[in-house]
Every structure is written in C-alpha cells, then in structure tokens.
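Sanity check

After download, print the first record. It should look like this:
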Amino acid sequence: MENPLWGVLSAHVRDRIDELLLKGHRIQAVKVIRDAAPEPLPGLPECLDLLGERYAALGKPVHRAPTAPLNVDTLAARVEAMPSRPAAIEALWDGDTEGWCVHLVAVTTAPNTEHSLALIRFGGDLRLFNGAVPPWPEAVAASTVGRALAERFAVPFHFASPEVPDDAAARWWDGR
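Expected structure tokens:
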C-alpha cells in the first residue's frame, strides 16, 4: 500500500527525494517533502516514516557514514598535528534524525577551542526499541579510546554522561 503522503507529491519531487536518499541526505529530503506537501504540512515523524518506506522500496539500507577506525596511534597523530597542546580529551553526545553518536574531541585553552578527533556511531535509535542499548557501544568505545589518548598526553579525560545520551551534559570547560 502506497503511503498517502507519497501519493500527493509530484513525480519530479518523488525523483528528487529518491535522489537525495541514495546520497544519504535525509534532512534535505525532509525539507523537499515539507516544501512540496499540501497543507497541513506533515510533521517530522510522518516524513521519516515516508523516508523509511522509500529506502525499503529502493532496496537500499539507510546510508550513514561509517565510524572511522578508533586507532589510538592515528588519533594521537591528529592531536600532535594540532596548533597547540591539548588541555583535555572530551567525549560529547550528539543526536540527529538517525540517532545518538559521540564526538571525541581534543580541547585546547590557547585558544579556547575543540578539535574533532572522531565521530562514533554504531547504529540508529531503533536499537532502543529492540533492547540493544544500553549499554551504548559508542560510549564504551569513546571512553576506552579517550582515556588512552588522555593518558598518552597526560591530560584529563572528560565524559559527563557515559551511561545515558545527554547533549546538554556539563562540558570540561564547566569544571575548570
């Protein structure tokens, strides 16, 4: 059975949505849907349901950038290439329409900034419904690698909320 929302979109808009999905551009696809849909505009859940159906119809898995290998030596080389010495290594939760991920960053104080080292994502939030998390494997990996990097550079490791995703958790800066 065809999604009613798909049925009200023009052939041009449908082609554009499929093109965006094949490239992994889900947010842009949602915008195209909302820009082309008649009133009342569909909400995010309706748009994401349609996108999930389109991925299945296209025979494609949900596209997401893979997590880069979390090799301590490779990440240490990134830290060493920074313009100033790190003051801390920090893990931060972030979320998007695909689910939760953890950013591993090196924090500097001269100037105050953070340098991205890795984005760690091992799955979408569908894992919550099938009981696959917690524990969050992203948090475990970030903690393991983050602690090893912090130890190598003799700086603190900070991860304010390793047990539960929280993108508003206290930052390393907050405790200084």
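If your output differs, re-run the checksum step. Summary of this record's structure: Residues 9 and 16 are 11 Å apart (CA to CA).
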